[in-house]
Amino acid sequence: MLTIKGLKKSFTSPEGGSSLIVDVPEFTLATGEQQALRGESGSGKTTFLHLIAGILAADEGTIDLAGTALTGLAEPARDRIRADKIGYIFQTFNLLQGYTVLENVVLGMSFGPRGSDRAKARSLLERVGLGHRLDHYPRQLSTGQQQRVAVARALANGPALVLADEPTGNLDRKHGREALALIRDVCRESGAALLLVSHDEEVLAQFELKSDFAELNRAALRPAAPQS
Ligand SMILES: Nc1ncnc2c1ncn2[C@@H]1O[C@H](COP(=O)(O)OP(=O)(O)OP(=O)(O)O)[C@@H](O)[C@H]1O
Ligand SMILES: [Mg+2]
After folding, report:
1. What CATH number is associated with residue 103?
2. Does ligand 1 lie within 6 Å of residue 198's CB atom?
């Protein structure tokens, strides 16, 4: 369902130089597969997920998502595909501050293929333990509670692919386990593929299929070149 070949992304540094952050010759994820990537901070994991989600455009290479070639598409087309096919649990949550917990999830659904479904939004929020916080605003929640809203929002659309960027990074052990179980159960129930990145060994231990991101990403193996 996801096939990546020769993917490259560089960023320009403030000094004007360019550094290669993602250089992934090959990566595949099958339909319904659940895979975890372990990687050090700064190794390019978030950048890699942003490329797969079409939030960032690649410099080189191809990303094929469920039969659609993402690379080469303009931003609006990539946005459309993301809304239709991807549930993204952002490392920084990206909740809409002016909307309540319930509205955040319902609004997320309104961009997707199935449209808004308040009952489903509510039920997912109950499953992440936030049934009593539906009318709160993100700033009225703890960081871990905000992360759980982000989990519910990403799963609400019935995505074909869930991208999870440290989805339990702000949760205690109990809530982390519950959130991870929910993500994996929802993906299993719907047949969605899951790609999760983490440096939490307890999270990684639960995945049969896992790899070191530095082995996939040749750019992560090299120390950053000094900028001249
Ligand atoms: N928009 C950007 N412009 C310039 N450099 C960037 C940009 N985004 C990321 N980088 C650089 O790319 C590298 C990888 O960043 P990324 O966020 O992908 O790492 P990560 O593996 O997700 O790290 P963490 O585990 O801390 O979340 C970092 O050195 C970062 O400074
Ligand atoms: Mg990151």
Report:
1. 3.40.50.300
2. no
Q: What's the angle, vertex CA 207, arms to CA 205 and CA 209, rounded to 5? A: 125
Cβ(220) to ligand 1 under 6 A?
no
Write out pLDDT tens, residues 78-114: 999 999 999 999 999 999 999 999 999 999 999 988 8
Range of the domain at 166: 2-221
- Cβ atoms of 209 and 35 closer than 8 Å: yes
Strand-pair partners of 195: 35, 163
Whether 145 contacts 179, CB under 8 Å: no
Q: Which atom of ligand 1 is nearest to the CA of 48?
A: 18
Residue 226 lies in a domain: no
Is 155 among the domain residues? yes
What's the domain count of the chain?
1
- Ligand 2 centroid vs 217 CA: distance in angstroms? 14
Q: Which ligand places an atom closest to the C-alpha of 50?
A: 1
Ligand 1 midpoint to CA 189 (Å) = 33
Does residue 11 form part of some domain? yes
CA distance 128 to 163: 18
228 located within any domain: no
pTM strictly above 0.70: yes
